[in-house]
Amino acid sequence: MQTVQIKTAQNIDIDYEVADLGERVLGRLADIGIFVGLALVLLFLASLTSWNEVFGILLIIVYLVAFVFYDLLCELFFNGQSIGKRVMKIKVISIDGSRPSFGQYLIRWLFRIVDFSIGSGICALIAVAVSQKKQRIGDMVAGTTLIKTKPRVQMDSIAFMPVTVSTYQPVFPQVINLTDKDITLVHDVIVSYNATGNAVLVYNMALRIKEHLGITLPEDMTELQFLNILIKDYNHLSSISAEA
């Protein structure tokens, strides 16, 4: 499993699993399949109707423009995903962890000429296969890569799973002062620790939350246990608040 480490706004390093070569290829084939299917539909309709020459030329121009700009527009307006990428549960992300800018999307789109036109995609395949962060040439120049968006954890570690025991007593009631975004970040840190064993990010996250909420841990409680309890406490208190 190859990952890319991204520093969040809270200065916490989170490891995201990068999309592998097979997922990228299948996503690309899915996108191409959409246009192949559309072309077949248009050809079928043309065989049934008598389109005039001007309308036919205009239709071809619209089709070609849509094909050329498809990736750029999809990634720009659908948060780094084309239809094929969405199917494969992968997305474009900036190496610094932020959403890519228009300039970054434009650069990786322009370099499709190098990646896919020259050598019929061989350049892109080689670049993704040998690069550490699974980047094609356009990604390297734009400072982007593709990561997996599908969950890598089981149901019992989902951040907002409710606590089903009605007699559960929250250990840290101060957790109600946190937000859903805070708890999601705590969950991401735990997932990253389980995948990489990097205890530093667990310690840093626990330290920030303790300072923010004014909490002192019991001597027999570790930082990892603290973060897990925070999630349970938050879910329990949130469910009570929602029922009230």
Q: What does this entry look like structurally?
A:
With 244 residues, the chain is mainly alpha-helical. The protein folds into two domains: 3-148, no CATH class; 155-243, no CATH class. 58% of the residues lie in helices and 8% in strands. It is built from ten helices and four strands; from the N terminus they run E-E-H-H-H-E-H-H-H-H-E-H-H-H. The chain has a two-stranded antiparallel ribbon with strand order 1-2. The protein has a two-stranded antiparallel sheet with strand order 3-4. A hairpin with a 5-residue loop joins strand 1 (3-7) and strand 2. Helix 9 packs across helix 10 (223-243). The model is unreliable at 151-158 (pLDDT under 50).
Looking at this protein, list some descriptive labels.
244 residues, mainly alpha, 2 domains, two-stranded antiparallel sheet, two-stranded antiparallel ribbon, 4 strands, 8% strand
Give the SSE map.
Elements: E1 3-7, E2 13-17, H1 21-48, H2 53-77, H3 83-88, E3 90-94, H4 102-110, H5 112-117, H6 122-130, H7 137-142, E4 144-148, H8 180-196, H9 199-213, H10 223-243
Antiparallel strand pairs: 1-2, 3-4
Helix pairs in contact: 2-4, 8-9, 8-10, 9-10
